[in-house]
Amino acid sequence: MDKxxxxxxxxLSGRLRVSxxxxxxxxxxxxxxxxxxxxxxxxxxxxxxxxxxxxxLGSLGISCELKDNELLIDSSNINSFEAPYEHVKKxxxxxxxxxxxVARFGEARVSLPGGCAWGPRPVDLHLKGLEKLGxxxxxxxxxxxxxxxxxxxxxxxxxxxxxxxxxxxxxxxxLAKGTTLLSNAxxxxxxxxxxxxxxxxxxxIDGIGTSMLEIEGVSQLKPTDHSTLPDRIEAATYLIATAMxxxxxxxxxxxxxxxxxxxxxxxxxxxxxxxxxxxxxxEMDGPPNPTDIxxxxxxxxxxxxxxxxxxxxxxxxxTSRITDTVYHDRFKHVPELQRLGAGIEVHDNVAHVAxxxxxxxxxxxxxxxxxxxxxxxxxxxxxxKTDVLRVYHLDRGYEAM
Length: 401
Ligand code: EPZ
Known about the structure:
With 401 residues, the chain is of the alpha/beta class. It is 29% helix and 25% strand. The structure holds ligand EPZ.
């Protein structure tokens, strides 16, 4: 069992270069299905999830080679349209291959993703959107079977601004015949990055960066090179870690405009922050002010930092409320934090954090990627030794934390 052994009590200080965005790469990689040829995706992070996506694309006949954060993809010889359960069960983002496969080949057989650590994560919006574009969707032995002679543009309103559904439908619409209007679309930077790459491939998309995307389908696309955007969640994780230990950090290769809501909250908590081009400096002395957060779709506070913020507020001199409106049950980290002595009560989708208690080291268990980060952050300030088990979750989203 792989574990991290952490002795708390030290300040974090120094410089750090943020890696490429996991959730950016996981959207850009399936886009290579849309046009045969060779792609160079630079600033690709060397993560377990990227390797899983590479294996999945490999099973379709696409070759992926990652060397020094340069990902070389050749999608010239796609010879299968099936995403097997063995890959999809490891990573929900595998579902992203559905839209491009149906758009390019008119057929796809993709395993339904399982649940995940914090509960069901449906894909109904992905399927409704593809059906609106003319795909016939059936479920066969746990697999989605999608067929379409030719997708045709349509108007589709997303009940929820789902990141994954927006990506899947966008990648289908770019090769559909006619115009698609996607309203209440996700505007996360990773979706914007995907749209920008598709435009470089010859797609016609208006409203990039907004929640209203207008796509004019084209008959074919061509390969392109693209640089993956910096990982805003990784950046936020290290800013919080530094603040918790009362340290200082010079962070490079970030895009501060992707972190506006997080920076505002860190300042509200008492951090001193300087933004300068693609770098962020943070200094913190003394405990943070109790600071409530409510997660929301972009540009709100990302749900992917909710667990890390909960750990941060354990150091505050008072009570904070942490509300997750995106995933109402994403609190698997709480019982583990309680093992370190944390005073947290969860009611519905709100964690009430009583800060100011000295945490003490213990053995804790990771349950998912961001919960692992939260436990490690808490261990940094706990007295004595903490063993964080099952840290393979961490390797999914953090390059060499
Ligand atoms: C993406 O997941 C991210 N993953 C997640 O990051 C992130 O937490 C999430 O967006 C929200 O920001 C990747 O980008 C690979 P959603 P995704 O579809 O696309 C509901 C991490 O830690 N929903 O935006 O799966 C869903 O249940 C990961 O890096 C439907 O109801 O998230 C949720 O409540 C974890 N029906 C809400 O929408 C659907 O068809 C947002 O989910 C799709 C989603």
